[in-house]
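Much of our argument rests on the idea that a fold can be written as discrete symbols. In the encoding step, the backbone of a single protein was reduced to a row of integers, each denoting a local shape. We regard such an encoding as a compact summary of how the chain folds. The record that follows shows the chain in one-letter code together with its fold in token form:
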Amino acid sequence: MASRFLTLADVMEVLNISAPQAYALVRSGELPAIQIGGRLQWRIEATELENYIQRMYQQTRARIETDHDTSPGPGAHVDGLLVD
């Protein structure tokens, strides 16, 4: 049976990010997490990590669409360079 909760190390591995990046995600609330035990260790519910990943896909899609809508068309010059 898969574990319901993940450690920060698990999140680091899944997202291929550093410890400070994982810590920042949970401290900011961007990735919902809980602290448990006497040492207040972070735990992230697996479903919350999946929700976070889906939000990042949506944000990336939206940014790409916005960038695409505002990008110059073929033949335009940007910073002295011809855009194909």
